[in-house]
């Protein structure tokens, strides 16, 4: 978005951008609903949900808009802003994106879904020996069934320090692995349950693929463990670099051979 001369004008531009987003979303799914972001507002019957009959343009103040598009960031150097919202859909996210992707790209809009459906999430850890060719949805469903909690799985950069910051100018320095996330209130319990299948002493793996759960860097206190974490990251990076193509089945067979 272009810079404006006044704060009121800028808020008007942001409101129009959100209205365009709602228009695109409704074209992809006419029954789509954007509820208030916070549970307190969702439970308040006087606060409406945004639907085809209640549009963003009808909201009378910028503070009302932030009730739906929360955590609204300041504009960065490229003119982009970021926020969090909830989309209640009657179709799958993949089907939604198939219909809306072109329109979103044309307007330079981006949607980055959370790996899990929890509003407050915590990183459970990342999987050593994972590859980007593994089916994230299958892993998410399998691990969710194992621990009886909703778990999300996504191929993401590995954090290697306390002040992790993405560097789009040099993506080669980033090391990737499949990360697991779940409810922040049950993160400890989930890690304990997963230790049975992906801990250092585990010998039997749910789908036959040998992987190890590595805690996130910010959760490690011991200096020794932080040093060990660096070697595991290097191991994962070497594995990713050496694989031109892989699938879960092929990877499993290569481990057992």
List the helices and strands and how they pair.
Layout: H1 7-28, H2 39-42, H3 62-66, H4 93-106, E1 121-128, H5 136-147, E2 152-157, E3 176-183, H6 187-198, E4 212-214, H7 223-242, H8 248-256
Describe this structure in words.
This protein has helices at residues 7-28, 39-42, 62-66, 93-106, 136-147, 187-198, 223-242, 248-256; strands at residues 121-128, 152-157, 176-183, 212-214. By secondary structure, it is α+β, with helices and mostly antiparallel strands. It folds into two domains: 7-106, no CATH class; 121-256, no CATH class. Helix 1 (7-28) packs across helix 4 (93-106). The protein is elongated.
N to C succession of SSEs? HHHHEHEEHEHH
Structural class call reads alpha+beta
Order of strands, widest sheet = 2-3-1-4
Helix content: 25-40%
> Biggest β-sheet, characterized?
4 strands, antiparallel
Total strands: the figure is 4
Number of domains: 2
> Radius of gyration, Cα only, in angstroms?
21 Å
Summarize the structure.
The protein has 257 residues and is α+β, with helices and mostly antiparallel strands. Helix content is 38%, strand content 10%.
Spell out the key features of this protein.
single chain, 257 residues, alpha+beta, 2 domains, 4-stranded antiparallel β-sheet
């Amino acid at each position: 978005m272009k810079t404006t001369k006044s704060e009121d004008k800028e808020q008007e531009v942001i409101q129009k951008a959100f209205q365009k987003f709602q228009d695109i979303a409704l074209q992809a799914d006419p029954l789509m609903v954007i509820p208030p972001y916070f549970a307190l507002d969702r439970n308040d019957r006087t606060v409406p949900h945004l639907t085809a009959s209640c549009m963003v343009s009808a909201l009378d103040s910028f503070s009302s808009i932030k009730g739906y598009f929360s955590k609204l960031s300041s504009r960065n150097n490229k003119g982009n802003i970021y926020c969090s919202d909830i989309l209640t859909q009657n179709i799958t996210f993949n089907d939604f994106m198939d219909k809306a992707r072109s329109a979103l790209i044309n307007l330079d809009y981006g949607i980055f879904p959370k790996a899990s459906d929890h509003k407050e999430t915590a990183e459970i850890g990342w999987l050593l020996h994972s590859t980007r060719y593994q089916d994230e949805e299958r892993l998410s469903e399998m691990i969710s069934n194992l621990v009886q909690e909703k778990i999300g799985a996504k191929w993401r950069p590995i954090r290697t320090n306390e002040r992790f910051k993405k560097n789009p100018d040099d993506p080669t320095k980033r090391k990737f692995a499949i990360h697991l996330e779940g409810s922040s209130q049950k993160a400890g319990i989930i890690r304990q349950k997963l230790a049975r299948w992906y801990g250092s002493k585990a010998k039997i793996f749910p789908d036959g693929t040998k992987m190890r759960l590595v805690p996130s860097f910010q959760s490690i206190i011991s200096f020794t463990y932080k040093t060990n974490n660096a070697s595991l990251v290097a191991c994962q990076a070497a594995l990713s670099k050496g694989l031109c193509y892989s699938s879960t089945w092929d990877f499993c067979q290569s481990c057992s051979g």
